[in-house]
Write a structure and sequence with these properties.
The chain is of the alpha+beta class and about 280 residues long. It is about 40% helix and about 20% strand.
């Protein structure tokens, strides 16, 4: 079991099979190779800190399952990842439920912040809420499943919009428009995209009474194994007299929670969305 930083939880290491762990390290080493490249047995041995004979044995075993492929002969032979990994990766994606992956993290986020939390997916230019964690005590907001939130004025929508390439985002805004929801809604396209660049830099989006009076929402995008946007999470609450500095603190908590979910979706973490 790997933790949110990509390492193993210490409590699980006692159950490890060393050979399997070494094989996983070999695959991780091969994953660093660029298109058309490969690593020699010597390079894999040095990278993984194992003997050449151990490296060779692992490579031949992985090769027999299609998890590793090779090119060349003798000293020029180079190894790369095998196409069976693509098949397994596709099956892993099918088996992942965003709702199931996100829910335990949302529960922790709500407990830590004292605010309701939600997860949404992009659909037809909007953020569509697919799950939420409500508070058992305190103020309850009228948050509904299936809600379609606009991209330019909600925390979830702005998080998704900021994670898109700007050209794609502008095309989306041209379709959805920039309707004014409150006196604080950003309705100028250039102002919005300047704001989204700040959102991208901080890793979270703030809806400061831009979608509804008296309500704030902080969202952050979720990225999949290809670095593409899979959805977004958010926390929502009553603004009241919430001091401005708390927005930054809450924003970091939402961003960190989103990164944990992204890692569970296969994203390596710590990098920006793919800009293709």
């Amino acid at each position: 079991m790997r933790n949110s930083e990509g390492g193993a939880d210490s409590g699980e290491q006692k159950y490890w099979v060393r050979t399997v762990a070494r094989a996983a390290e070999v695959l991780e080493a091969l994953a660093t190779v660029g298109p058309g490249g490969g690593l020699s047995v010597t390079e894999i041995s040095q990278t993984c800190g194992i003997s050449k004979s151990a490296a060779f044995g692992l490579l031949q075993t992985l090769r027999s399952f299609g998890l590793v492929a090779d090119d060349g002969e003798g000293m020029s032979r180079r190894y790369r990842l095998g196409m069976s990994l693509a098949r397994l990766g596709d099956r892993a994606q099918v088996q992942v439920s965003l709702r199931e992956v996100a829910r335990p993290v949302l529960r922790e986020l709500s407990r830590a912040t004292g605010l309701a939390s939600r997860v949404a997916v992009p659909e037809a230019g909007h953020a569509v809420v697919i799950d939420q964690v409500d508070l058992e005590h305190g103020s309850r907001l009228d948050l509904r499943m299936g809600t379609r939130e606009l991209p330019h004025c909600s925390g979830l929508g702005k998080a998704l919009l900021a994670a898109m390439p700007e050209e794609e985002g502008r095309a989306l805004v041209h379709r959805t428009g920039l309707p004014r929801r409150t006196s604080r809604t950003i309705t100028d396209e250039d102002t919005l995209f300047a704001h989204l660049r700040d959102v991208r830099a901080s890793g979270y989006a703030l809806d400061d009474e831009e979608d509804a009076e008296g309500i704030f929402c902080i969202g952050s995008p979720l990225l999949d194994h290809r670095g593409r946007v899979a959805g977004a999470i958010s926390i929502t609450g009553l603004k009241l007299d919430l001091p401005g500095w708390r927005f930054q603190e809450l924003g970091r908590q939402v961003r960190d929670a989103a990164q944990r979910i992204s890692v569970s979706l296969g994203h390596p973490g710590g990098s920006e969305p793919e800009r293709t």
